[in-house]
Amino acid sequence: DRQVHEVQSYMGRLETSDKESVHLVENEIQARIDNIFSNLERLEILSSKEPPNKRQNAKLRVDQLKYDVQHLQTALRNFQHRRYLREQQERQREELLARTFTTNDSDTTIPIDETLQFNESLQSAHRGMDELIGSGTNILQGLRDQRVTLKGTHKKILDVANMLGLSNTVMRLIEKRAFQDKFLMLGGMALTCLIMFLVVQYLT
């Protein structure tokens, strides 16, 4: 517990440390964390040798310490990551301010070719999406036409069956088949809409 509190106190110094000393503080914290982890490994071995009535409490205490140290390790890494981003932004800002711009400076020319290529890629993607949506619309229209055709066919079959005096059993079989065809058609329409939605989501 004492070592954990010491690391926590060092963590409080990070935000107030200057650029020259922050690395030293980070190294000191990391060294203390590594030392605590090493001690915890020995404590785990010792806790496993405790009497059964004390073993559970010893293990819980070791697990709690391990959790606290892991939390400190995560906090240190997050601070280092934020510091790295902050220093990178400062370097980029200093480089931008230090750069002298001239009309013939080749280093300051805008990468027009890359911009045009990017715009062309976007336009190609948009054209592909438009073509895909158009194809999907044609498919849906075809399915609607098939539905109308199936309805007409169904009616004609019923008319012919009535004219031929077919039995009620045959009539029910025909109606059942037409009912199944209707669900197949609806399922195909739903599957086509789902594929179109997934493709659009992926492309965007």
What does this molecule look like?
There is one protein chain. This protein is mostly helical and 204 residues long. It has one domain (1-98, 149-203). It is 88% helix and 0% strand. It is built from 5 helices and no strands. The protein has helices spanning 2-14, 19-48, 52-98, 112-164, 168-203. Helix 1 runs antiparallel to helix 2 (19-48), helix 1 packs parallel to helix 3 and helix 4 packs antiparallel against helix 5 (168-203). It is elongated and about 100 Å long. GO terms for molecular function: SNAP receptor activity; SNARE binding. It is found in: Endoplasmic reticulum membrane; Golgi apparatus, cis-Golgi network membrane. It is a single-pass type IV membrane protein. InterPro entries: GOSR2/Membrin/Bos1. It comes from Cisticola juncidis.
Q: Indicate the overall shape.
A: elongated
Largest sheet: none
How many beta-strand runs? 0
Could you state the order of secondary-structure elements as H and E? HHHHH
Total helices: the number is: 5
